Amino acid sequence: DAGVTQSPTHLIKTRGQHVTLRCSPISGHKSVSWYQQVLGQGPQFIFQYYEKEERGRGNFPDRFSARQFPNYSSELNVNALLLGDSALYLCASSSNPTGIPYEQYFGPGTRLTVT
Amino acid sequence: DQQVKQNSPSLSVQEGRISILNCDYTNSMFDYFLWYKKYPAEGPTFLISISSIKDKNEDGRFTVFLNKSAKHLSLHIVPSQPGDSAVYFCAASAAGNTPLVFGKGTRLSVIA
């Protein structure tokens, strides 16, 4: 079975531009979460979607948005890019976002560089 | 304000010896804890977890210990192998719809 897939692998953008990152969860998983990992830090929660509805949002500005599609894949959009948005963006899927156990399975990430 | 802390940025251990990675948390609502391993250019890989109703969980060479009164958990790897060299993240969540909160990670180097 395929794991979580993300595209693109790497991306270079200029300040002020817009970016869209994509994620396909593990087959059968209905929950997708997005995390940002800057160098030297642990992943930081951005969004969680379950059954196409937003279930949680981290402490990120409104420039960040996301959505989940009927096939449970997801997009993360970032507008008006800043240099500080340069990071590894991770997508994680899980079968159910509530209860225990609550293991999330991560994709390889998209490395975004803003110049 | 970090709710999950991994105070050792790096750890070096000889092959065959025990590796002990530590993690502290401040939020008493956390009741589920996970360890992830991350290699360069890959996403974090789930390793082992523990619920707050337990104080120990074992899976092969990996054992996680939880001390709720001290708000402390540790990951023991024995025996350590060179392939264990990676960054290890401690993460926590509360029951219900809450996301994972990660520590900054500890880079483990296992020397042959």
The major pleated sheet of chain A works out as: 7 strands, mixed
Strand tally of chain B is 11
Query: How would you name the oligomeric state of the polypeptide chains in this document?
Result: heterodimer
The number of distinct helices of chain B, counting runs of at least 4 residues, comes to 0
Averaged pLDDT of chain B, please? Answer: 94
Give a verbal description of the structure.
The complex is a heterodimer of chains A (115) and B (112). Helices cover 0% and strands 50% of the residues of chain A. Chain A has 115 residues and is mostly beta strands. In chain A, strands 2, 4, 5, 6, 9, 10 and 11 form a 7-stranded mixed beta sheet that branches. The termini of chain A are far apart. Chain B is globular and about 40 Å long. Chain B contains no helices and 11 strands. Chain B has strands at 4-5, 10-14, 19-25, 32-38, 45-51, 56-59, 62-67, 72-77, 86-93, 101-102, 106-111. The model of chain B has no long low-confidence stretch (mean pLDDT 94). With 112 residues, chain B is an all-beta fold. At the A-B interface, strand 5 and strand 10 of A face strand 4, strand 5, strand 9 and strand 10 of B.
Notable features of this structure?
heterodimer, A: 115 residues, mainly beta, seven-stranded mixed β-sheet, four-stranded antiparallel β-sheet, 11 strands, globular, B: 112 residues, six-stranded mixed β-sheet, five-stranded antiparallel β-sheet, 54% strand
